[in-house]
Amino acid sequence: MTNFILTATLILFSLSVQSQPNLSLKFDDIASGKVFLINKQNELIDTLLINSGNVTYDAIIPTPTLFYLIVDGYNTKRPLPLVLSDQLTEIEFKNFKEINENSVNEAYPNRPFFVLDPNNNAAFYEFLSNWKHFYNLIEKLSENDSPEQLEKRKNAYDSFLSQNKQIIKSNSDQYISAIIIDFLLRNNLLQIETLQEYYDELSLSVKGSYMGFKIGEKAGNAGRLQPGQPAPLFELTDSEGKNYNQQSLTGKNVLLHFWSSSCAPCIKEAPDLLKLSRDYANNLVVINISLDTDNERWITGIEKAGIGHMINVCDMQGLNSVIAKSYDVTFIPVYYLIDTNGNISLKGTLEQVTEKAKNGMP
């Protein structure tokens, strides 16, 4: 009899543990409809029904995982990122708005109110506020490219990075910090040396997570292109119709500079790139490879950066271009220095390339 009672108790306890949901949503103005939850690790989609303004989600989530939340007919263009785990996340939404525009100004008007937030998702929405403020400020400061305006843009960018680093540092043991870094990477808002600094802030558990490992790869901790290896072959045609490949550049140091017109750090360091090109004109061939997908934006970007007299290449394929894939380009700006023997001498930042040049290359 005692064994029976003990077994029944264990079963009831097990059921009670299993029945605890991972997510609870409450809408004050949406009584019915559908919610889609997209698991960004495996891209599986769960469809949930809104019942009298309430939604619950119960699944096995052994480790913190990024999901995208979409309310059918409301925010398809701007899914809400949420990190869920085996602990309950409870959210309330007031006056959930339909998003018709895909602009940054219209982005994420539906801020969650977290009743329970074990994964500290609130930190991501604090970051989003910083991002929108930074974007709007840069828009206002982009009316012209006077030295004063350029300096203000640099200061705005530095301030933006400082704010975000503090958020990541304060949440170094939370998976959400890796999600913030990934967002910055996908929007070309981090340079390589900054990425490494951010990655170093993450705890060991976050570094070992799904997103942490991906960031580690991008930071160069598991990169396949290392100094001393033969540089991947390339065939490039510049804006003037001239062709470049390893054979035509034999015996020369070559710098492949991957950038785009929408990359704020790329534009920021253009003056330093120009100086490097001038200082080592007899010993270095610089090829600017844009990952733009629009010809007009590319041309405008060249003019804005002041690099029109240099070698400029773009096949309008973005990250899908052959050379971007060959050189494992997942974020910009990034530089590959190739020595006179056709081997990779350095993969890194403009600052690192400049230091290498000062020391005589390769």
From TrEMBL:
In which organism is this protein found? Fulvivirga sediminis
| Positions of transmembrane segments | none
Q: What is this protein called?
A: TlpA family protein disulfide reductase
Specify the domain of life of the species encoding this protein. Answer: Bacteria
SUPFAM superfamilies in alphabetical order: Thioredoxin-like
- Per the record's keyword annotation, is Ribosomal protein included, yes or no? no
The cellular component terms of Gene Ontology attached to this UniProt record, alphabetical and capped at eight, are:
cell envelope
Some GO term, biological process aspect, for this entry: which one?
Answer: cytochrome complex assembly
Signal peptide from the UniProt entry: 1-19
Localization per Swiss-Prot or TrEMBL: Cell envelope
CDD domains assigned to the protein according to its UniProt record, in alphabetical order: TlpA_like_family
